[in-house]
Design a protein that fits this description.
single chain; about 1250 residues; Beta-Lactamase; 8 domains; six-stranded antiparallel beta sheet; 45 strands
Length: about 1250
């Protein structure tokens, strides 16, 4: 096969390059446009599917809306009327057209009542098992069912729409249903007839993989797409919406789009075969391939013609060179002139020819030189042809054989040497021709004197001109003297080996190739390995080490002494042997016993200093090393102890001079160790007393003990370098050697910190023992190790009763386990826990405590204990609960008071105008009875508002001195009638006068409410006891209840023998609207009103009750120590009128008009103002006309009290009558008790108002 020409190679290469570039460009362009086309196709297909889905949703919603509208026209009576039902269905052809499988009416029990078209086989059957019917009846909402097989005779798959029919009671009385047959032509099944392209189609399926609509009607209502058969189908069920490539369940590659219907959640999908969708892409790909082929052919033709033109001069140049090789004469320059690179190549070739001629001349010269050189070589050299004939030799060869050059040329070995040697030489020549290379061997030779010599032959072949073996070149080295020396050396070696082998020190020798050549008996004993098993072994490390590493002898052979520190921690160079190394190491023998060995290794060199081996000696010094290590360890430990000791340690001789000092001692006194050594200890650091006076050495007990050699221990005063002093705990011990005293060791410890620590510890101990809160210390397992006296005082446990036990003995069971778990997790993680715990005393009583529990860490930072501080917060808890209750009552009271205030204004108008109207009617007028009913109802409403005001503690109280026992005695007669005949009333009244400041009417209200509650608590009859007495409240009362000022109080108790109350009910009993009575039997305000009245009187109310043992209410009112006042009973009279001017200020217009009408009826002149600001302006101009100001208290911006103050600033003698209903009107609060000021409560009757006005005007 001929090689390709340069022209062909270049043509193919450039054409392929052009084709490759064009292919890359074409493929990239095609991929871009294919991608764009796919995205466009995906978008169009998804938009189409989305549009169809929206149309289906519209159809479904309109069908459902139509059905709901139809259901709304179906009356309850028509449901049970067959004629009305027939008319109902006949009048809705449009609805029937929407639901091609008919309309159905079901009762609320699920029974089919009627159908259109009539389904006689299904009538009166119960379909309540259908989900669509159950859901509609349960929710009252329209439903769309999943596909199911109809119970109708055709048994087609259908979809049911339902709409509830509501009765007059607002409940579902029937269900109207409309169904669509999935096998008929309707708006759903027409989806399956949509064709995309030639083979594409649409289909619809639901969430449980059931096919709702499909172009293949056989697949409707089938689950024939298993999980995993269509990836995008599965993803759409998981929520995917969009377009992508997939393989459908029929193994067809398709482009699928998915859109979920908003109405039913079903999934509308389209499948468009990829083969059809991508057909334009496949056609474009064919066009591109054809275009690339055409471009490739054209490029090949153009490149081939171009290369033919360009290589023509190169071909001519080649022919001229080929002609030069056929002539032996000197080469002539090449004659090619092109002016381009080929001409440059010609010049280079001409230069090469010139250099070759010069090299030929130099080669001939060197050949002549080599012949001369061979002749002067002192060792015999010869060369022969392939047949064994001598072609030449040097003078040394001729001299060895004793022959002349002419005698040797052309002869063979058989002609020159004895036959036995000739045969051997001949065989070696044949062998050399066979294998080639260089042949070296030792043999005998006979010289010209016929003496045998030991010769080393070196032979090789040289090539002929045709490349075959041309002959043999040989050299002979006379080694006779060398062999004799070797024999002598071998004798010496055997002696040395015997000496090494018999040595008692384990020894081995490696040659220069790291092979074991000697392994002595002692080493066999140490390692348990025989010499025969290791001689010649190179990887000796396997015997001594587990991982590969060099032996000391290996490092010497490799002359890698820089690696000594890497493998040996202790080594040194031998001072006796040059290159010798001594090291220490560890060896574990096969039995597992460890040996500490010293290793000595030295190089073995020949007479020329060449490294030929290494000797390694190993000595087992395990016992000695262990003793040395123990001694060194002890010494080092002692030194470390001395250096690390926190105490100062001085060694002194018998003269008191310091011979040793540790760092702690130097740090203590401020001198360095070097400065202290040699100094007299007493003169340097023990020279003075605390007052600064000299301390003679003769009086120093430490110096005396050191001198006398006796132990001594005391506290001494030492002095620092800076002149400051400090107390130390000093301990002096004598030092003796062979019984002779040589000095002493003085150990001293700075007591400054210890003294401070002892003081701090004493303070801390006192603080813990005298702490006002309980303190517990436990170990890390929670076992108690310490409790302070406060703990034992609070809990009742003695210390020895709880030490060693777990704090859970304090648990009451009212604190959640989760809280305890969180507490434990917090403190065991090293953090502080703070919270509230409900604990139990030893007595069984429970109490709330605020606990702070924190870890205690030791000097290493590890948690060693836990400490708890626990402070009783039971009182605070009670106060918090009372505050919460008070705030709640205050908030509700504000609401009730506000409502009552506004209601009072309304009642004032109703009652005022009602009385005016009543008085204007003539006697016998039939309207009088109606008016009396109105006024009676208004009067009852007045009592209701007063109850609300009493509850809110904002009712205006008319306080005066009341004897409580007398009041209760008089009111008891009224209570007998209230409680009924089956309840016995018992009274016990105190003989002492119980004078209190109270509103008697409100106190009577309290007794009546309590009696009424007691009656209701004793439905079967019982006893009601009322008792009065005087008591003294003290701190114990406050401690038990959390409130109560010390002092004397009047106590009235109301006790019944009824059902009693549990603690939970007692906590809510005073809350407004809380009642235990049956509906309609109470308002829930009775006890709230009691609470409000007593609080308004500055008193307290408590309750004690037990289930089945009745209830006792205790009411405490402060006793009045002032002299009882005599109250004159005002005479009842009919009010008279007058002509004075009354200034009325009322922000409620209706109340203002009422007051104006009443006063004018009695002849008064009235000036009316609607606010405080307006009143001031009017009063400014008409103050001289005004005899009395009638003011509402609660007004916006400026209230009645503020207005009163401003009016009286201008007219101090002005008489003022306040019109109000509760204490927030700022009258009682501020203590206005000035002459000419009075108060009338709302709602005020006209006669009362007129009487009060007249009283004030007539007063002096």
């Amino acid at each position: 096969m001929l090689p390709f020409s340069l022209k062909t190679k270049m043509t193919v290469t450039i054409s392929l390059l052009i084709a490759g570039l064009l292919s890359v460009l074409a493929i990239s362009t095609q991929m871009y446009f294919v991608n764009q086309l796919k995205q466009l196709l995906y978008t169009q297909q998804f938009n189409m599917v989305s549009a169809v889905a929206d149309q289906i949703d519209d159809k479904i919603f309109s069908s459902q809306t139509e059905l709901v509208a139809a259901a709304g026209t179906l009356s309850k009576g028509a449901v049970t009327d067959p004629v009305a039902l027939k008319s109902f269905f006949d009048d809705r052809p449009d609805t029937l057209a929407m639901f091609d499988n008919g309309l159905f009416l079901f009762s609320r029990e699920g029974v089919l009542i009627s159908a259109n078209p009539a389904e006689t086989t299904l009538l009166d059957k119960n379909f309540l098992h259908r989900d669509y019917l159950k859901n509609t009846l349960a929710t009252g909402k329209a439903q769309i069912s999943e596909p199911f097989i109809s119970a109708q005779p055709h048994h087609h798959p259908i979809i049911m729409f339902t709409a509830p029919v509501f009765g007059n009671d607002g409940k579902v009385s029937a269900v109207l249903g409309g169904s669509i047959d999935l096998t008929k032509n309707n708006f759903l099944t027409r989806i399956g007839s949509v064709v995309l392209g030639k083979e594409g189609y649409l289909y619809l399926y639901n969430k449980d993989r059931t096919m709702v609509v499909h172009s293949d009607h056989r697949r409707i209502f089938r689950k024939d797409v298993p999980v995993g058969a269509n990836v995008l189908y599965d993803r759409a069920l998981a929520g995917f919406e969009g377009t992508g490539e997939t393989v459908n369940s029929r193994k067809v590659q398709v482009i699928s789009s998915f859109k979920r219907l908003k109405s039913t959640g079903w999934i509308l999908a389209s499948n468009f075969p990829q083969q059809e969708a991508y057909s334009p892409i496949y056609k474009a790909r064919t066009y591109v391939i054809f275009a690339l082929a055409v471009v490739l052919l054209i490029s090949i033709l153009i490149v081939w013609l171009s290369m033919k033109f360009l290589t023509a001069p190169l071909l001519a140049f080649t022919e001229q060179i080929r002609g030069m090789t056929q002539h032996k004469e000197a080469a002539q320059p090449v004659g090619v002139n092109t002016g381009d690179e080929i001409e440059v190549l010609r010049d280079a070739f001409d230069q090469l020819l010139a250099e070759l001629e010069a090299q030929k001349s130099e080669l001939k010269r060197q050949l002549d030189f080599s012949r001369i050189l061979i002749d002067i070589i002192p060792i015999p050299v010869y060369y022969k042809d392939a047949q064994g004939h001598y072609l030449g030799c040097n003078q040394a060869f001729l001299d060895f054989n004793g022959l002349g050059r002419e005698e040797l040329m052309g002869k063979t070995v058989h002609d020159v040497v004895p036959p036995d040697l000739a045969d051997k030489y001949y065989r070696s020549d044949k062998e050399l021709f066979g294998v080639g290379g260089v042949q070296v061997f030792e043999a005998k030779a006979v010289n010209g004197q016929l003496a045998q010599r030991d010769i080393t032959f070196f032979k090789t072949t040289f090539p002929a001109s045709d490349g075959s073996h041309g002959g043999i070149l040989g050299a002979m080295l006379d080694i006779t003297e060398h062999k004799q020396a070797e024999e002598a050396l071998q004798t010496q070696k055997e002696f040395a080996e015997s000496l090494v082998m018999k040595s008692t020190v384990p020894t081995f020798v490696l040659d220069h190739r790291h092979r074991v050549i000697i392994w002595n008996s002692a080493l066999e004993a140490l390692t348990g390995i025989k010499a025969d098993d290791v001689l010649g072994l190179e990887n000796l490390w396997k015997i001594f080490y587990e991982t590969e590493r060099p032996l000391l002898a290996d490092l010497i052979l490799d002359e890698a002494l820089d690696g000594l520190s890497e493998h040996y921690g202790h080594y040194r160079h031998s001072p006796l042997i040059s290159g010798g190394i001594q090291a220490e190491g560890w060896y574990r023998d096969p039995s597992g016993a460890g040996h500490y060995i010293t290793i000595s290794a030295a190089p073995i060199r020949d007479r020329n200093g060449v490294l030929v081996g290494a000797l390694q000696v190993m000595e087992d010094i395990t016992e000695r090393k262990l003793a040395q290590d123990a001694h060194e360890k002890t010494r080092r430990q002692l030194q470390l102890i001395l250096d690390a000791a926190g105490e100062g340690i001085n060694g002194v001789d018998t003269q008191g001079r310091i011979t040793f000092v540790n760092p702690a001692a130097a740090d203590m006194v401020g001198w360095t160790q070097e400065e202290l050594l040699g100094q007299n200890q007493h003169a340097l650091m023990h020279h003075s007393r605390e007052d600064g006076s000299p301390f003679p050495v003769q009086e120093c007990a430490v110096a005396a003990a050191c001198h006398e050699g006796r132990p001594y221990k005391s506290e001494e005063l030492f002095w620092r370098k800076d002149g400051t002093s400090f107390y130390v705990e000093c301990n002096c011990s004598p030092l003796r050697e062979d019984g002779e005293l040589v000095g002493a060791v003085i150990i001293y410890k700075d007591m400054t910190e210890r003294r401070l620590a002892e003081e701090q510890l004493l303070k801390l101990s006192q603080a813990v023992m005298q702490s006002p809160v309980s303190i517990i210390i436990t170990d890390t397992l929670g076992n108690i190790e310490f409790v302070n006296p406060r703990f034992t005082h609070v809990t009742g446990y003695e210390a020895d009763e709880v030490i060693g036990r777990n704090p859970r003995l304090l648990q009451s069971g009212k604190t959640s386990p989760e809280l305890y778990q969180g507490l434990w997790n917090t403190i065991t993680s090293g953090r502080v826990w703070t919270g509230e715990l409900n604990n139990r005393y030893k007595s069984g009583a429970t109490h709330w405590e605020h606990a702070t529990i924190s870890p205690i860490r030791n000097s290493a930072g590890a948690i060693s204990h836990f400490m708890a501080f626990m402070e009783s917060i039971s009182e605070r808890k009670k106060l918090e609960e009372q505050l919460r209750q008070a705030q709640k009552m205050e908030a509700i009271g504000q609401l009730a008071g506000g409502v009552a205030h506004d209601f009072n204004n309304i009642l004032t108008v109703i009652m005022g105008f009602g009385q005016l109207l009543q008085h204007s009617l003539p006697a016998g007028d039939p309207m009088l009875e109606s008016m009396e009913q109105i006024l009676d109802a208004a009067d009852r409403a007045t009592h209701l508002t007063r109850s609300l005001l009493a509850f809110s503690r904002k009712q205006v109280m008319l306080l005066h001195q009341v004897e409580l026992s007398d009041l209760a005695r008089k009111h008891a007669k009224f209570l007998v009638r209230i409680i009924g005949e089956d309840v016995t009333l018992k009274t016990y009244f105190c003989e002492e006068k119980l004078m209190v400041m109270a509103d008697s009417g409100q106190i009577e209200q309290v007794l009546m409410n309590l009696a009424t509650n007691a009656r209701d608590a004793m439905p079967g009859g019982g006893e009601l006891t009322i008792k009065t007495e005087a008591v003294q409240l003290d701190e114990e009362f406050h401690r038990m209840h959390g409130y109560g000022m010390p002092g004397r109080y009047a106590l009235i108790t109301v006790t019944d023998t009824g059902t009693g109350m549990d603690p939970e009910t007692q906590q809510k009993i005073f809350e407004p609207f809380f009642t235990t009575k049956l509906p309609g039997r109470g308002t829930g305000l009775g006890l709230s009103i009691v609470y409000g009245i007593i609080k308004q009187h500055g008193g307290y109310v408590t309750i004690f009750s037990q289930r089945g043992f009745g209830t006792t209410f205790s009411i405490y009112l402060p006793l009045n120590v002032e002299k009882p006042q005599t109250v004159e009973q005002a005479a009842t009279f009919v009010p008279q009128g007058g002509s004075e001017t009354i200034f009325v200020v009322e922000d409620d217009a209706s109340v203002g008009r009422l007051v104006e009408s009443v006063l004018k009826r009695y002849g008064y002149n009235v000036i009316l103002a609607g606010s405080g600001e307006e009143a001031l302006e009017i009063y400014q101009s008409r103050s001289h006309d005004i005899s009395l100001a009638l003011l509402d208290v609660i007004m916006p911006k400026m209230n009645g009290k503020e207005l009163c103050e401003k009016l009286r600033e201008r007219s101090p003698q002005l008489k003022v009558l306040f019109l109000s209903g509760y204490t927030a009107d700022l009258i009682q609060d501020k203590g206005i008790a000035m002459d000419g000021i009075d108060l009338i409560r709302k709602p005020a009757k006209p006669m009362e108002l007129a009487r009060k006005v007249r009283e004030m005007l007539d007063a002096q």
